[in-house]
Amino acid sequence: MTDPASPSAPPAGLLPAGLMDLLPPEAEREASLVEALMAGFASHGYERVKPPLLEFEDSLLAGSGAAVAEQTFRLMDPVSQRMMGLRADTTPQVARIAATRLGLEARPLRLCYAGQVLRVRGSQLAPERQMPQAGIELIGSASPEADAEVAAVAAAALAAVGVAPISLDITLPTMTPTLLEGSGLPVERRQALAHALDRKDAAMVAALSAEAGALAECLPSLLAAAGPADAALAALAAAPLPQAAREIADNAAAVIAAIRARAPGLRLTLDPAEFRGFRYHVGVAFTLYGPGRSGELARGGRYLSLNDEPATGMTLYPDAVLRAAPPAAPRPRLFLPQGTPEAVAAGFRAQGFATIAALSPTDAPRALRCTHILRDGQAVPLPKE
Amino acid sequence: MTDPASPSAPPAGLLPAGLMDLLPPEAEREASLVEALMAGFASHGYERVKPPLLEFEDSLLAGSGAAVAEQTFRLMDPVSQRMMGLRADTTPQVARIAATRLGLEARPLRLCYAGQVLRVRGSQLAPERQMPQAGIELIGSASPEADAEVAAVAAAALAAVGVAPISLDITLPTMTPTLLEGSGLPVERRQALAHALDRKDAAMVAALSAEAGALAECLPSLLAAAGPADAALAALAAAPLPQAAREIADNAAAVIAAIRARAPGLRLTLDPAEFRGFRYHVGVAFTLYGPGRSGELARGGRYLSLNDEPATGMTLYPDAVLRAAPPAAPRPRLFLPQGTPEAVAAGFRAQGFATIAALSPTDAPRALRCTHILRDGQAVPLPKE
Fold it and tell me: Domains of chain A: which residue ranges?
């Protein structure tokens, strides 16, 4: 224990940077949102798994887990004398379960999960080091319909908790690398182009690709096409894409058509030149946005699961969903004077009241934030002070 | 990363001892039980807080946290260069919140929580190293009614998820130490008596207390009194207790009377000589048992919170509740052939079906464990194979 008087000791109750308490009523709201999202997933056949918070780092950081290796807290297991990691992402754990304990289940396998993840450092924009996640993984199908399903199911779950309107941003992380690699340009020029594309510097992209044949026609138009999905698909269709890139474009068109069939009301944008995001995405990648400035609510996309099994999934961020969702109506609180019969109290709870039982004659209904008080068997509203 | 071919590498997918995956359908059942327990707590005015999984060890291990210090995983925070702990119990965190961020809220303060705890080592009987907890803390009331409330609310929450019958075992962890300390016996004799009481060795207790005045009358009768609460209270009433012990007995009688008023159907036992359990209990201590051999479902009791504020609480063990609760009816799974209109699918989800959309013509309803298939707009049961 640290001497609390020592100068380096934090004030009592101080928490490490990026770790925080969720207080009433936010903690209950977040939990309710998570369970509502999970109920939405379950209604589409996604079955819940609950991997442990800690596991051996060599399984935790395999596959897509490598992307979060640097952000993973590690600690020694005194039982096995092996290193364990505290999960920074749940998808690698679900991939492990799908490949091992559920390896013999029929495909496509639909799994969902909810829980906390931790990371070693926050960023300036996202200082949190513990975050809730709730997500779905659809494993064993390579079809565009599978990508469309995870997008539609995630959007429907958000809509069910009152987040509207939702827009889905689709990117094709393999498109730009495929075009650059097939361009025949020297490595330095490709890197410069990638850098310019990353900054969306249209003039520089045009200059750098000017003498690169088909690329000179493709890249500027793809960069300009970012926006509503139909216009972006039209730009892709018109661009003189080499075969490998054409297949990526055709797949994007198929995914978008399948999403339209599953989620007709969803607003879709496509940014065909964007290639940032998790390194492990091998097909479409998704970001779901809520209204106004609520920011990213979910990310996902297609990846290769363990044993190179095709997979697609979506991770929702309940802390962001909490900020985007409409506030819940507060629960009315009924003060029960001492001696209230239990059956009477139970009756009011069944009506939706939280009952606050007086434990002594000095318990004060207003101070305890009660909205009602029991008088003559009736829940009488307490006027606000 | 460990070389997977090295002889010390675990097989792929192996988890550390005591850490496990919860699979379908258990993961969903456990989550549903936790939320049902939390809904019960909320209906009695307990408001949810969510402390982080990690915090500085000097706050995590303060107060009642000292009892789990040896079981707490520690890791270095690279941001602050200070040691953090991975919580092994949630009560110390709730105490911190009550004393700091909710320090100015009116008392009694009712808080509840649900989440995971981790411990360094499992035991032979309880090998788990990650366990769910769901609990309530009632802070700022010293009255027997407060102890009765946490017992009654916990029992009601268990009853609401179908666990019946429930019995509440009450112990008085301060009774035996109080009697021994006031006995005037030499330290060695007191230690021998404590040891004999711990083993419930009635003959040895009688022999060791034979010449110890009032103790010779008290201890054997208290040891024998363990059982239904009324008989045990009668034995306490008849025993020639010194003043300090008499106050403990009177408080136990008051708590039991208050529990009877709040939870008339609850089966109560009292073991007045038992003094094992968490070191920090300063009044009654509780253990809730389910039917048959389902074991301990919850533990709790009265303690001193930070700043010596009186407090009482109960921690439920959802993994044990899961084993004691009746199984839930499985959700019917309806297979939707490709091209099923979204509105039709939504209608069946609203009826309680999980809808399993075919993603390709080869998706097989039986292999996907569907119970029904959509034919001519109807959910047709699939006969079992």
Answer: 26-162+293-324, 174-276, 333-381
CA–CA separation, B200 vs B274, rounded Å?
A: 9
Q: Give percent helix, percent strand, percent coil of chain B, each to the nearest 5.
A: 35, 25, 40
> Cα(A133)–Cα(A135) distance, rounded to whole angstroms?
6
- Strand order of the β-sheet with A372-375 is A354-357, A333-336, A372-375, A378-381
Domain at A26-162+293-324, CATH class: alpha beta
Radius of gyration for chain A, computed over Cα atoms and rounded to the nearest angstrom: 26
DSSP state letter for A360: S
**Which residues are within 8 A (CB) of B28 and not within 5 positions of it... i.e. 6 or more apart?**
A38, A42, A47, A48
Q: Which residue has the higher pLDDT, A276 or B367?
A: B367
Inter-chain contact B106–A13, Cβ cutoff 8 Å?
no
Rounded to the nearest angstrom, the minimum Cα separation between A19 and chain B is: 6
- Judged by a CB distance cut-off of 8 A, whether residue B118 touches chain A is yes
Cα–Cα distance for residue pair B138/B140, rounded to 1 Å: 7
The pLDDT of residue B12 is above 70:
no
Confidence at residue A12, expressed as pLDDT on a 0 to 100 scale: 64
List of residues 6+ apart from B123 with CB closer than 8 A: none
DSSP A68: G
Instruction: State the Cα–Cα distance between residues B134 and A259, nearest whole angstrom.
Output: 39
Nearest neighbour of A59 by CB, restricted to B13, B61, B75 = B13
Q: Helices A26-43 and A144-160, interaxial angle, to 10°?
A: 140
Burial class (CB in 10 A: 0-12, 13-18, 19+), A184: exposed
Mean pLDDT of chain B, nearest integer? 92
Q: Which residues pair with A315 in a beta bridge?
A: A135, A299
**Residue numbers in A near B331 (CB within 8 A):** 42
CB B96 within 8 A of CB B139: no
State whether B342 and A263 contact (CB < 8 Å): yes
Substitution target in A38, A47, A333 with the highest count of B β-carbons within 10 Å is A47
What would the pLDDT profile of B269-308 be if each residue is shown by its tens digit? 999 998 876 568 899 999 999 998 878 999 999 999 999 9
CA distances from B236 to A262, A343, B285 (A): 70, 31, 17
| Tens of pLDDT, residues A72-103 | 999 999 999 999 999 999 999 999 999 999 99
pLDDT of residue B184: 86
* A186 CB neighbour count, 10 Å cutoff: 9
Q: Which contiguous run of DSSP H or E holds residue A146?
A: helix A144-160
Residue B188's identity, in one-letter code, is E
Tell whether A149 is within 8 A of chain B (Cβ): yes
The minimal CB distance from A79 to the residues B16, B45, B55 is found for: B16
